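Q: Give me a backbone?
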Amino acid sequence: MPSYKATITGAGVVCASGHTFYDLSRSVVGETSHVDWVTRFEPPEDGPVVACEVDDYDLSTVLESRKSRLDPAQSHFMAACRYALDAAGAPQAHIDADAIGIAYGTSFGPTRSVEEYSERLAEKGARYVNPIGFTNAYINAAPSLAAIEWSMRGPNHTVCAGWVSGMAALEAAMLSIATGAARAMLAGGSEALSEMLYRGLAEAGYVSMAESPEAVGSHEGLVPGEGGGALFLEAPEEAARRGAEGMGTLSAAVTRVATDPSAAYEWAICEALGGTKPNLYLSPANGYAPLVAAEREALERLGLATSLPWQVRLADTVGELFGAAAPVAVGLALHLLQPGESALVGALGPLHAGAALVQRGGAI
């Protein structure tokens, strides 16, 4: 287990269950699934028809300043950041802006903007395409916008590690705090569904071919979701200096390239736990059979397959959130745990694996 720790003083979420961790935790405990029909675009003919979509919302009601049109992936991250900062007690007013950074993870980025800009470019030519659409297509636009919005001048990272990009963002944030590059980090990730992304996942064989939302449980394959998650992480001494009330402690966040997903996941769990016996396990399983098998094999080799007391699959409730999954899962864990309890948060994709250890309340 890494020797450094970070205090979590704020957490925010946007997902199919709503805009609060109370809504998400209530759905998880009540085993309420938000899987539904795809409505944002026409699904592929003879292809999958299910997804977990975020209800439309007005970002101007969340932020203090009105924005020109943003990609949904950017809106989801900005909203989650706003909620995390509010929960942390507006820390940017008490911490030097040069000491606050941002770490952002995404698996696919603003694919809806990429899709729309590319289509208009092909139809009208470069001379007649709105350049704002091009700036929205940058993968690092979301953390850049957040840095501008809240005047955060510390390290600004955009990390891409496949489906575990959100965990990689937490890892980058922890390293920034541990090395003294920042005293606090806004860390998270986001994803948004688009026709291009959905079709790509479907053609690769990842998406459930359930004929209806009700039939998902009897089919293999994942249900794509969308949303954003953000955590405000502080060096413990910084949180104590400003008198912040910590929600919990992030003791580890690690990732590894998964040439063998099962072996990489086994390593990540060992590195994160360091001998700690968690009270809760946030499983990365999403219905895609090869990864379900890789997770099972890793847990069996570690002797954890039957010893973890409470297991939750976030994807069963709000779909596979890809780069947003890890920060959302950590925030969810803080709302499911009792004070002093800890949770293991897993992250697993075709090419990467990761894990985090979080405790509600004081340090582990």
